TrEMBL record:
GO MF terms held by the record: transmembrane transporter activity
CDD domains, A to Z: MFS_MosC_like (cd17393)
Residue spans crossing the bilayer: 22-41, 53-75, 82-100, 106-124, 145-164, 170-191, 203-222, 242-263, 275-293, 299-318, 330-354, 360-381
One family name in Pfam for this protein: MFS_1
Name of the molecule in the record: Nitrate/nitrite transporter NarK
Membrane topology: Multi-pass membrane protein
InterPro entries named in the record: MFS, MFS_trans_sf, MFS_Transporter
Organism of origin: Pseudomonas mucidolens
Places the protein is found: Membrane
Key words, A-Z: Membrane, Transmembrane, Transmembrane helix
């Protein structure tokens, strides 16, 4: 019996790791596959830039509202049903995003898509914390790296399908079929349990959880700024052609993906505190390079440094959330993720508002101060 157990435990652990990686891959794939549909949605619904912005706000708002419920459901019913049902709802709604013309229906579909994505994001991160803690190894960077890989695959696949002449609905159905196949593979090893029960459905982050959420907010704010403003900066301040201005975010995303896929080894060797401290400095230096050295090649190098620096900070944060005892994990994890999502939502608006009052360079330069704050406060992670 002992010999059998010694063989089965590592196998089960491997299956749980693989199912967690697939869950992250699914989330990244679906979220990024939505991006090529956005211009088509804008045209189909007859929206101006302001209307589109409000529509997209519904996606992030739906995610934030749903996350506490995901934590509660995961704690009481396990990770498996939440991941499965959230993914199924995403797959049901995703084709609607490619076809619905009636604006109220489109708004409802976007909110449901955002809420389901928020629940999937929360449940898979709870599973990742449990699997990492049970393994005794650094695994978070690899999990989040699969989200980045999914992001590349989803955006690339959807763009390719549309380029090859498929109508949006057929392209969306191809993505859905891929996701359902991946879910079928992952489902048996998804955890049938969650974190400990206890704590309220909603709770204001406090203590170490508030600090971790603040770090997550800053990193996601930086990511949102890179997504929405890097191309604008390259065109307006570096004279790059608009058709290739996407190279800015591409360099950021590529460096982040590589950093996360190699991050478990880095965290194991350096420790989480050093990774956050050095990562914050690397990202701040990258912003300084992108803003302080003329020429778009230097800006691309700077954006790559920002991506590399930020890549493993959030994974280390989730490891720390799993260790803390101040709040139940079913409450703490949704709280930290929600603060991160708030950073993505607020970041582009913050940069735009500051740029309107001063310059875009100054607005992006504010991120340097925030990233240095991340670096200098990293030692608190030891607590």
């Amino acid at each position: 019996m002992n010999a059998t157990s010694s063989v089965l435990i590592p196998t089960a652990n491997h299956s749980e790791r693989m199912s967690t990686r697939i869950a992250f891959l699914i989330a990244g794939l679906l979220m990024s596959a939505w991006a090529p549909l956005v211009p088509l949605v804008k045209t189909r619904a007859g929206l101006d830039d302001g209307g589109l912005g409000l529509l997209l706000l519904g996606l992030g708002g739906g995610s934030i509202v749903a996350m506490p419920f995901a934590g509660y459901l995961t704690a009481h019913h396990g990770c498996r049903p939440v991941v499965i049902w959230a993914t199924i709802v995403l797959c049901a709604v995703f084709p609607l995003l490619s076809t619905v013309v009636w604006l109220p229906g489109l708004v409802i579909a976007v909110i449901i898509f955002g809420a389901s994505m928020g629940m999937l994001d929360c449940a898979m991160n709870i599973q990742s914390v449990i699997v990492e803690k049970n393994s005794g190894q650094a695994l978070q960077s690899g999990f989040h790296g699969l989200y980045s890989v999914g992001g590349i695959l989803g955006a690339g696949a959807m763009t390719a399908l549309l380029t090859f002449g498929l109508d949006p609905l057929m392209a969306a159905l191809c993505i859905v079929a891929t996701v359902l196949g991946a879910l079928y593979k992952a489902a048996p090893a998804l955890l049938t349990y969650g974190t400990e029960r206890g704590g309220p459905l909603f709770a204001v982050p406090r203590g170490i959880v508030l600090f971790l959420g603040t770090l997550c907010f800053i990193v996601f704010l930086t990511e949102g700024a890179m997504l929405d403003w890097s191309a604008v900066f390259l065109v307006s301040n570096r004279g790059l052609e608009p058709s290739i201005a996407g190279l800015g975010y591409a360099s950021f995303a590529a460096a982040m993906t590589v950093g996360r896929l190699t991050g478990d080894t880095i965290v194991s060797k350096l420790g989480g505190v050093r990774v956050v401290a050095l990562g914050g400095l690397c990202a701040a230096a990258g912003m300084l390079v992108s803003l302080g050295i003329d020429g778009w090649p230097a800006s691309l190098v700077g954006y790559a440094l920002v991506g590399a620096g930020c890549s493993n900070i959030v994974p280390v944060i989730f490891t720390a959330v799993g260790r803390q005892q101040r709040m139940p994990q079913a409450v703490a994890i949704p709280a930290v993720i929600s603060m991160g999502y708030a950073g993505i939502l607020i970041g582009p608006v913050f940069i735009g508002a500051v740029a309107h009052l001063s310059t875009l360079s100054f607005a992006l330069g504010c991120l340097i101060v925030l990233l240095v704050f991340v670096s200098t406060t990293a030692r608190i992670l030891r607590n």
